Amino acid sequence: MLSIAIAVYNEEKNIGKCLESVNNWAGEIIVVDGGSSDKTIDIAKQFTDKIIITDNPPIFHLNKQKALDACKGDWILQLDADEIVNQLLKNEIDKVVNETGINGYYLPRKNYFLGHWLQKGGQYPDWVIRLFRNGKGKFPCKNVHEQIVIEGEIGYLQSPLMHYPYRTLSEYWTKAKRYSLLVTANLKNQHHNLLIEITNYLFLKPSITFFSIFLRHLGFYDGIFGFLFAFLSAIQSPLALIYFLKHKIYGSSIKH
User: Fold this and answer.
1) How many CB atoms lie within 10 A of CB 94?
2) What is the pLDDT of residues 220-240, one digit of tens each?
3) Contact assessment for residue 34 and residue 165, using Cβ atoms and an 8 Å cutoff
4) Domain 2-165, CATH
5) Which of 107, 169, 218, 242 is deepest in the core (most CB within 10 A)?
């Protein structure tokens, strides 16, 4: 049996399409909700009764791990609410879960930005470990961009997982703020030379990020979408610095 594991928080705009894409295909769907205040839980109940309600930790992978721990299937497919499993990927998964010798798989992910598939800029193929044998994979739960760690051999699938993280600029800024606050929290808990950190986060990191995405990884092939994605990605470092300096000067709390 294949289990779907998904952790959510205020995902009413995405959760329905995600769960619909795996409904009547997977053996079970496990949803861990971090205390959503919108209609996320109501929508999820249309597809599964296996819903765990908990808190919303800064490292959201803690909730993802809770979802993995609740799965009963022989194989687990871990998803985010803004991802969709198409028929080609379903067919390939159905095939490989009946094979032996491999404990986990990388999936290529097609990332969409404002409705445009980002073919360059290091965004495709965006290899992510999502499919694995139950008990052979787990999240380290240390940072927001970590991969699932697999015990044993890892293979590669060819059919892409569809990812729609930024349907609007508003969605982008919501997630950018969340990531920046996590960086700020890490800065807050470390010792720093303030001048070096200002230089690093205001000039060095943004420049490296922009030129890496737009030039080194050929983001310019995606036109205005490639430029905008590179630019917005670059200014997340200054945004984190602003939150950090606000805390240093005013002693304000860092909220996620």
Assistant:
1) 11
2) 999 999 999 999 999 988 888
3) no
4) 3.90.550.10
5) 107
